[in-house]
Amino acid sequence: MAQAASEDQDLLRQIAKGNAAAFDLCYQRYHGPIYRFAWHMTGAQAIAEEVTQEVFLRLIRNPRSFDPARGSLAGYLFGMARNVMRGQLAATAQHVPLEDEAVEHIAAAPGGDADLLFDIDRQEKLDLLRRSVLALPEPYREAVVLCELEELSYPEAAAILGCPPGTVASRLHRARTMLKARFRAMGCLR
Amino acid sequence: MNAPDQLSEALRELAAASPQGLPAEVGKRLHGAFVQHHARRRRQRNVLLTGVVLCVLVLVTGLWKSRSEQAITAAKSPVNVHERAGSASPPAKTTNPRDVEVAQPPHAAYGKTTRPKKSATAHRHAPTQTAETADFVALPTFDPAMQLGPSRTVRMDLPGTALQLMGYPVDEELIERRVLTDVLVSHDGMPYAVRLIQARDIH
Fold first, then answer.
1. pLDDT one-digit tens code per residue, A126-160
2. Is the Cβ of A32 closer than 8 Å to some Cβ of chain B?
3. What is the 3-state secondary structure (H, E, C) of B116-152?
4. A18 vs B21: CB contact, 8 Å cut-off?
5. B9: nearest CA partner in chain A
6. Taking CB atoms and an 8 Å limit, are B14 and A49 in contact across chains?
7. CA–CA distance from B109 to each of B102, B116, B149, B179, B182 (Å)?
């Protein structure tokens, strides 16, 4: 996903000139990651759609605001999505808390064989994992979504989050510990 | 398989199972927004450009008009009128009587040379000091804003008092003398400028 800076710059220059093909290319390249990031962070499809649209609308309105010296275009778009998301969440005060009932239900399910991550069907397992990620505090959630789900490197994630790569690594480590503890508590993990 | 690997595997599965992108309609909407935005920007740019071009045109036209008016004003000055009139009498070698001597007659009968004083009136009515305008002195009857028709130069022998009555700034010494003068007369008989040729004593 990380594109060369010169390529990003060229793409942005073409977009600023009004080249629709360049915009389509940029959209095709980045809308998926941005949308998934927003979706994993908010847990709401509608908000994720709005956030992604807003990010690209802002890019349309002001493509020259991207400064290649400060990071990649992907990082810039993720950062923008992060800001938009915060604004949206603050406006709607929407939170998607972990539903403890569901967790309890899964935890109560028979799961004697601890060799597998879950003794439940795949869809339930993914749903539980998604909810567990959503239940993480925001800084840890961001680290998990960017580094684990979107497979960004520590420096890339650090550029988006505005912190040193070491901080990203420690947040990720802490997030993984929290996730494992939760699953252990449910008896889903050895 | 240890716990971290299981967790990583589960997270990879979650990433793979996540929606991969927005519906196609959203992409089309954004594409439309992009096209609209740039069409609007192009319109704004064109309007701005047109405005700038118009401003430049107005400025150039204004300058051109101003220069034309200056040229017309210059053409209306007595000397130019004189030149246009194609006066039969050749311009005399005398110079502007405001600051230069009236031509000295070759014989003593014409009296001594005088040098009219530089009065404020003379300065006010004097034409522009150029080589071309050094001959004639505009009279108060001359109106630069008025369109002059064909004019002619008449050489006359006038008393200094007559010159004074016409509005010419006459020196005290010239009042009591006669002066050979070229008078620039318009088609309606109005004298507009004079040029002193020679002065002589009244006998």
1. 888 888 998 899 899 999 999 988 888 898 899 88
2. yes
3. CCCCHHHHHHCCCCCCHHHCCEECCCCCCCCCCCCEE
4. no
5. A117
6. no
7. 15, 20, 39, 13, 20
Count of positions (residues) in chain B: 203
Instruction: Give the angle B146-B152-B154 at the CA atoms, nearest 5°.
Output: 125
- The answer to whether the Cβ–Cβ distance between A148 and B22 falls below 8 Å is no
* Among candidate residues B158, B157, B138, the one with its CA nearest the CA of residue B146: B138
If you ran DSSP here, which 8-state letter would residue A3 be given?
Answer: -
- Whole-Å CA distances, A12 to A49, B7, B112: 22, 38, 91
- Rounded Cα gap, residues A188 and A109, in angstroms: 10
Q: How far apart are CA B5 and CA B9, in angstroms?
A: 6
Phi-psi region of B149 (alpha: psi -120 to 50; beta: other; left: phi over 0): beta
Contact between chains at B15 and A20 (C-beta distance less than 8 A): no
- Nearest Cα of chain B lies from the Cα of A62 at a distance, in angstroms, of 11
Q: Chain B residue closest to A116 (CA)? A: B6
CB atoms within 10 A of CB B132: 15
Per-residue pLDDT of chain B (203 residues; tens, 9 = 90+): 455 577 888 888 888 888 888 888 888 999 999 999 999 988 998 999 999 999 999 999 888 888 888 877 766 655 444 444 444 444 444 334 444 333 333 333 344 444 444 444 444 444 333 334 457 888 888 877 777 778 888 888 888 888 888 888 888 888 888 888 888 888 788 888 888 888 776 65
CA distance A132 to B11: 11
3-state secondary structure of B80: helix
Residue A80: CB partners within 8 Å, gap ≥ 6? Answer: A55, A58, A59
Q: Which two tokens stand for residue B144?
A: 């630069």
pLDDT, one tens digit per residue, over B161-191 is 888 888 888 888 888 888 888 888 887 888 8
CB spacing of B37 vs A61 below 8 angstroms: yes
Is A57 buried (19+), middle (13-18) or exposed (0-12) by CB count in 10 A?
middle
